[in-house]
Write a structure and sequence with these properties.
Protein name: CDP-diacylglycerol--glycerol-3-phosphate 3-phosphatidyltransferase
Distance between the termini: 40 Å
Number of helices: 6
EC number: 2.7.8.5
Structural class: mainly alpha
Helix content: over 70%
Strand content: under 5%
Main location: membrane
Keywords: Lipid biosynthesis, Lipid metabolism, Membrane, Phospholipid biosynthesis, Phospholipid metabolism, Transferase, Transmembrane, Transmembrane helix
Transmembrane segments: 155-176
Radius of gyration: 18 Å
Length: 189
């Protein structure tokens, strides 16, 4: 069950990273680069939903897929944020908050799983809202143009990425609070 269709779809998100970054090093017009990178991000980000759906539908869920899926998501988001910082479309502080939280919560979840308390840091609605805000903000910022006679994706993307940063901190505090009783119990023994 290593090379299932859902797992291969998850792998495409990792393969997408150099492709999205590479678009910005092509001799294409800036607006064309922005559009291609935006469409690529949207297509590859959509595989996150699709691979999970297919894994359940085809009964091809696996421990490897459960491990790889969030890793692929984090790679895609972090790489896109670094591109956006490089293009000066988002603040480095926002990228540090989001990337730092991803590292911290991933480490916390790994440790909690190691001590048999992974349910205390299970995915919560705050984390889902944070992810949604990120996944809408990033393509807006990658596109960085005007749609529909006045919808400035750069402005909306900036607002959403800051909302994502706030939700990032909020969800991190939530997960740490949930883990704290287990941490205290382990330290006192």
């Amino acid at each position: 069950m290593f090379l299932t269709i859902p797992t291969l779809m998850t792998c495409t998100r990792i393969v997408a990273i150099p492709l999205i970054v590479g678009v910005f090093y092509t001799p294409l017009e800036p607006a064309t680069r922005n559009l291609i990178a935006t469409l690529m991000f949207i297509v590859f980000a959509a595989t996150d939903w699709l691979d999970g759906y297919l894994a359940r539908r085809l009964n091809q869920t696996s421990a490897f897929g459960a491990f790889l899926d969030p890793v692929a998501d984090k790679f895609l988001v972090c790489a896109s944020l670094l591109v956006l910082v490089h293009l000066q479309r988002t603040d480095v502080f926002v990228a540090l908050i989001i990337i730092g939280r991803e590292i911290a919560i991933s480490a916390l979840r790994e440790w909690m799983a190691h001590i048999g308390a992974s349910k205390s840091v299970a995915v919560h609605m705050l984390g889902k809202l944070k992810t949604t805000a990120q996944m809408v903000a990033i393509p807006f910022l990658l596109y960085d143009g005007v749609l529909f006679r006045g919808f400035d994706t750069g402005v909306w993307g900036q607002g959403l990425i800051w909302i994502a940063a706030v939700l990032t901190v909020w969800s991190m505090v939530y997960y740490l609070q949930k883990a704290l009783p287990e941490i205290r119990a382990r330290i006192s023994h």
